[in-house]
Amino acid sequence: MLIDPEKVSNNQLYGYMTRLIVPRPIAWVSTRSTSGVDNLAPYSYFNAVGTCPPTLVFCPANKADGSKKDTLLNIESTGQFVVNLVSMELVQAMNQSSAEYLPEVSEFEACGLTAIQAERLQVSRVEQARAAFECQLHSVIILGSGPGASNMVIGRVIAIHVQDDCLDSQGWPLADKIDAVGRLGGTSYATTRNPFDISRPQSPK
């Protein structure tokens, strides 16, 4: 089967990509509006893209009417955001926060989550999240226009939070303790509960 992106609808293309590029980590992004309202929403087009400097990227798509989502508007206004990781115990709250609440409604309150002030930013993070990344905006790259168009948000990581009970004796995060949830296609998800190790090969001589 050959799929030509130019010959399928945006919905079909989304279905193919999200069912093939799996599992995708979830960026549960918290922001704050200029009027002081905390916003929280999940995005599965997300990943780390470098450590020198430490950099993350996620892509909020435009709404069905072509307008920008609150997350992007807030980041463009303040230059700040936090990426909270989603553990299994937070899946239902994460899913609920994906609903389109009015800009004046805080998803923290609507979803029964505790907002805690970030250390280095004027943004809240999810207290229940087992790990989180405080980020300053590096840049926004507009990848398209209209309904569903992507906007690539690049953030510089300036602080990382990890719960102490999710670390090993040497201070490294443990995947099974973080219990992060990843996105598959449709309404399916995956977890990091069954990790395995493969040693790196020796370089050929």
Describe the structure.
This protein is an alpha+beta fold. Helices cover 17% and strands 32% of the residues. The protein contains 5 helices and 12 strands. The chain has helices spanning 10-20, 70-78, 91-96, 107-110, 175-178; strands at residues 24-25, 27-32, 38-43, 46-51, 54-58, 80-84, 115-117, 124-126, 131-142, 151-162, 181-183, 189-191. The strands form 3 sheets. Strands 3-2-6-9-10-5-4 form a 7-stranded antiparallel sheet, covered by helices on one side. The protein is globular, with a radius of gyration of 18 Å. The mean pLDDT is 95.
SSE blueprint and pairings:
Blueprint: H1 10-20, E1 24-25, E2 27-32, E3 38-43, E4 46-51, E5 54-58, H2 70-78, E6 80-84, H3 91-96, H4 107-110, E7 115-117, E8 124-126, E9 131-142, E10 151-162, H5 175-178, E11 181-183, E12 189-191
Concise account of the structure shown:
17% of the residues lie in helices and 32% in strands.
Structural features:
205 residues; 7-stranded antiparallel beta sheet
